[in-house]
Amino acid sequence: MSPGVRLWELAAAVPPESTQQAVGYPSLFVLVVVGALVPVVPTGAVVSSAAVVAFHSTAPLSLLFVFLVASFAAFLGDVCLYCLGQRGMRSRNGSRWLTALRDRAPEERLAQAQAKLDDHGVTVLVLSRLVPAGRIPVMLACLLAKMPLRRFIRGNAPACLAWAATYQVIGILGGSLFPEPWQGVVAAVALTLLIGAVPSVWRRVRGRRTSGSQSA
After folding, report:
1. Are 152 and 146 in contact (CB under 8 A)?
2. How large is the average pLDDT for residues 29-41?
3. Three-class SS of 5-45
4. Across residues 158-168, what is the average pLDDT?
5. What's the pTM value of the predicted model, to 2 decimals?
6. Helix axes 62-90, 43-55, angle to 10 degrees
């Protein structure tokens, strides 16, 4: 029997679920890290979708692995982004990473983040991870306050754990409501996108009310 035929037989003997896990966990890690560095990837929806698939999996530790991979990837991405921001703060010309952080942190939200940081310290990092679009203003406030990396890590570690657990619960709820994994994925993604859209809609409504009262 040729080596090519043996390899084909071994590949065919691998259970589909094991193959999915071998591809899924690295993909989850990469997507969450990239989403932490470049906040355009809906990482919450990615974690919830992975939790749905793990919920329907027969492997007993699938949900635990999703939690560990997602929380570590979020932590690593945040730390890398904070280090890049610190490098930009020390540079005379700044950096594109620091500029990107400033562009994604409106002055009003940055002022709020700075006030919360003064009042609550690093514990505000936990809330910033759970509130949609709250992470970047708080991280920028930490950079402007020249918070040491070690102190940022102490606050960011529990924040990433709480974030991963929250979106995993959303995925588990979506997976438990539907018999098919793809149905649960659709429900989890829709729910996470809806949660992410609520703050921006609320700010628009509040802005219209404020402008209307001022014009009156």
Report:
1. no
2. 88
3. HHHHHHHHHCCHHHHHHHHHHHHHHHHHHHHHHCCCCCHHH
4. 94
5. 0.77
6. 160
